[in-house]
C-alpha cells in the first residue's frame, strides 16, 4: 500500500489495477473507491483490516466507472459489508446488465489493445446494491471535502475526484501514471503520466477534454486506476504535458467518429474496422497443424524405413553378404509395395 495523501491510501492489486481507501474525516469512517478485478475481495478485506481495524467496513463503495477492472469485486464486497455502491447516472445501464459498453477496439495498436481481444465483455450485475449520485451536486457522497468531476471518453459516466484543500486528484482512467499502452510497462509500474485505456476509449475528443479539465486543477498529488502515485511538481507538469500533446491514434474504430451514448446505453456505433488478427491466427494455426501432421507422417515413415533397413542389414550381415547389401525398396524411398 502507498500513501497518496493524508487519509488516502492506494492499494495495487495484481500489479495492474488500483483501489483507494479514502477517510471521510470522521475517525474510523472511510470509503472505498473502485474494487479491482474479480477475485480481489480477500486482498481488499485484508488491506482494510490492516489499515483500519479487524472487521472494518466502509460507508460506501464508489466506482469511478464500471469496467471490469474497477467493479470486478464490488458485488461481493458490498454484500459482505452491507453497503451501497455509488456510480454516475450514466453508468447505470452498464452495471445493471441493461447495456454493454461501446465495443473495445483491438485494431488501435499497442500490447494492451492486442490483449483486449481476450477480455470478457459481460459484467457482474450490481442492481441490488447500486445507486446513482446526484448529477447536479458536485460534492462526493460520504466525502464532503471532495468533489467529483465527470470525465467521459473512456466510459460514459467516468468520475474523477479532487480534494481542493491539498490538491489531491484521483483520476480514474482519464489518464494513467504509467505507460498504459504497454502491458510490460504497466507491470513494471514506472511512473509516467500517459494516455490510458486506448482500446476502450470510445470518444477521443472527449478523452482529450477530460485530461485538459483535470490538468487545469493543478494537482499536487495524483493517483489513477493504473500506475503508481505521483507526488510533487511533476504531477501537474506531467498532466499539462499530456493535455497539451494528447496523442490521438492514427487509426482505429473511434478515431474519426466516436460512439454516442445516452442514459440508456449506446445510441450509435461507427463501423468496426476489419480485424485481420483472427484470420492471421487461423492461417498460422492451420499451417502449424499441417506442419505437425506432415511431421507425424514423415516421422512415422522414416521410422518404418529405419526398421526395414536394420532388419535387412542384420539378415545380410548374419549371412555374410552385408558387403554387397542393397537397401530394400522401402528404404530407397519406394512405397513399400
Automatic annotation (TrEMBL):
Residue ranges of the TM segments: 277-297
Statement: the UniProt record of this protein carries the keyword Cell inner membrane: no
Domain Metallo-beta-lactamase: 16-226
Gene3D superfamilies reported for this sequence: Ribonuclease Z/Hydroxyacylglutathione hydrolase-like (3.60.15.10)
Keywords on record: Membrane, Transmembrane, Transmembrane helix
PANTHER family, per database record: METALLO-BETA-LACTAMASE DOMAIN-CONTAINING, METALLO-BETA-LACTAMASE DOMAIN-CONTAINING PROTEIN
Protein name according to UniProt: MBL fold metallo-hydrolase
Species in which this protein is naturally found: Hymenobacter negativus
High-level lineage: Bacteria, Pseudomonadati, Bacteroidota, Cytophagia, Cytophagales
